[in-house]
Amino acid sequence: MIKINEDKCIGCGLCVKDCFTKEIEVTGRKAKPKGIRCIECGHCIAVCPTNAIVLENYPMSEVLEYEKGAFEIDPDQYLRSLKYRRTIRQFSGRQVENQKIENIIEAGRYSPTGGNQQNVSFCVMRDDIEPLRNMVIDELYKFANLPEEEKAKLNISWYGNLWKQMYLDYHDKNRKDGLFFDAGTVILVISKSMQNACIAAAHMETMVYAQGLGMLYSGFFTRAAAHSKEIKEYLRLDQGQEVAACLVIGYPDVKYQRTVPRKPAEVAWR
Ligand SMILES: Cc1cc2nc3c(=O)[nH]c(=O)nc-3n(C[C@H](O)[C@H](O)[C@H](O)COP(=O)(O)O)c2cc1C
Ligand code: SF4
Ligand code: SF4
């Protein structure tokens, strides 16, 4: 719920104009909340010229004042960095600093959510990577050994041989990790809304690379988690929650010299 400081309000109406849910009205040159429907998006806070509005129960001290040059991204540099980004499957043993992990979570936390539900949560796996990896590799092996028709139903027919090989490599004396590639940090992005979680994950990915780290999205993990009661229980997911993305993060042990080509975009201009 918003609170408006009447002493600061100059009745300009900018908050009324920018409020998506029409929650604010100006009467007697003072803005007032109607108390009908506020999605706590903060647009009124951001737009108010006199900083007259706060959201109760939110950490207002984290709000930053706009400063020209400090909040913009250079578009050419941004696009180049996206083109240079590669999925990393070779990690050095260097542990990712906690501050960098917190910055990645912050990028997820500040991502937009439908209706501003803010219903995306994060699970940082470090100490528990080993048991999780064991469980997932075992589960995938079980899936790989299902009868063909069941695999077809789960849409995993194609992966069977890969998962069998991954299991064998992992249980070999060299313990080759074809799931997390020996990365030291895994962040799971969890939500009841796939769309919200995937948007958060994409922003987190950008933050990963901006900090000199690298990552891969583990689709093997999300498939295993989607079909396995045991993994869901281990992760203590609430009813309806899914692991939308699994970010496997570390310092890259590979250096790329250039970007790669892609197929032309399929675009309809209408
Ligand atoms: C998946 C998704 C669907 C959304 N759908 C709509 C929409 O249909 N109409 C709309 O006005 N805003 C829509 N939004 C915008 C959200 O309401 C907005 O992101 C949220 O209120 C937070 O505000 P902010 O993006 O300015 O931080 C959508 C956002 C997301 C992530
Ligand atoms: S934007 Fe701020 S100053 Fe303007 S009407 Fe709203 S609360 Fe008052
Ligand atoms: S927080 Fe968003 S929905 Fe609530 S009053 Fe402000 S602009 Fe409107």
Automatic annotation (TrEMBL):
One GO MF term attached to the UniProt entry: oxidoreductase activity
Coiled coil region boundaries: none
Annotated InterPro entries: 4Fe4S_Fe-S-bd, 4Fe4S_Fe_S_CS, Nitroreductase, Nitroreductase-like
UniProt signal peptide: none
Stored Pfam families: Fer4_10, Nitroreductase
Domain of life of the native organism: Bacteria
Family matches, as Gene3D superfamilies: 3.30.70.20, NADH Oxidase (3.40.109.10)
Protein name: Nitroreductase
